[in-house]
Every structure is written in C-alpha cells, then in structure tokens.
Amino acid sequence: MQISEQLQQHPLIPVITLNKSKQAKPLAECLINAGLSIFEITLRTEAALESIQRIKQAFPDALVGAGTVISPAQMRSIIEVGCDFAVSPGLNRELVQIATEAKLPYLPGVSTCSEIMHAHALGLRCLKLFPAELSGGIPYLKQLGSLFPDLQFCPTGGVDLKNYKDYLALNNVIAIGGSFLAPTELIDNGNWSELTRLLERIYR
Asked: Is the pTM of this model over 0.85?
C-alpha cells in the first residue's frame, strides 16, 4: 500500500512520544476505541522501538509507523521491527532509497519549494509539510497547490484542535499529524480517561 492510500483512509495521525514502553498497549487501545487505527511513534526516546513492537503484537491490524527517522540506521531498525510506514522531518536521498528498496511507505518532510522540487524529482508525490505553521500554514499550502498540483501534503507542526479542520479542508492536504491527538503529559500519567474525553470532543 502506498503512503497516500494509508493517509487517505486515516486522515488524522496522532504523533506520539512514548517515554515508557509499558504505556504503548493501553495508549493504542484507547486510540483504537476512539476510532483511530494509525499511529506515528516518534524515535525520540529509548522506548520507541519496543513500543512499536508492543503495539504491533497487540493490534496487528493497526498501522504503526515511526516518526523522526533521521538516519539510515534508524530506517533499517524500524524495517526490522515491522513498521508499516516511516516519517522524517526532512528530505534525505539515502532514506528515500532505503525505504523504496524495502517497499516501506515513506513520508519525508519538506518546507521549501526547493525541497519539494527535489522530492518530486525523486518520484515522491506525498510529503510531510514541516513545520507547517512556521512554514506559512494554510496560505502557504494554497500557494503550493497552484505550483505543484500533483502533490499531496500532510502538514505537521503547529496543527492543533483549533485549526486541523481548516487544514483538512484544503484540496492538497490528504491528512494531518499532531501531538494534540495524544498529548505526552496524558500518556506519561496514564490518564486514559482524560485522553478518551479529548478524543470524544474531536470525533463527536
């Protein structure tokens, strides 16, 4: 499955930072019960890879990806643990090559027209706009739509409860990513009831 197909089916992507792998399963259960079945686990902590494995084992039908993939070693490690997709904050030809060879759906980050043109030359048609708000937000994406009509974007960074629907309303936005869907503070405290209430406000 291409990354665009995954995102089209799951337009809300919780960007998750797990400090303890034991929180992975209850978090995933909470998100799945709310209607989310795609997760981006950022590689910002030592618990990330084990957390990915735990979620995949407990919920094999969920789409579990790795975020903040910035090195070839990280890309290879997430392939080994069975990630369903990968996300990076920037664009790197070697990472694109590794993901392509492994047939791993990949969403590299871009923020400038030069980076977008480079990604386009590499054959990529679905990209992460990061950091979305600081890069120009919705007005910038509208401009990109006229410049690159065959590209789709997943804005992340500054996307929150107040603006995510406005982003999703754009023709060239296929999905959004945000930590607001799974706040680290709630995860660290195991506050699943509050997380459930938050998700209910989003999905009501």
From this structure: yes
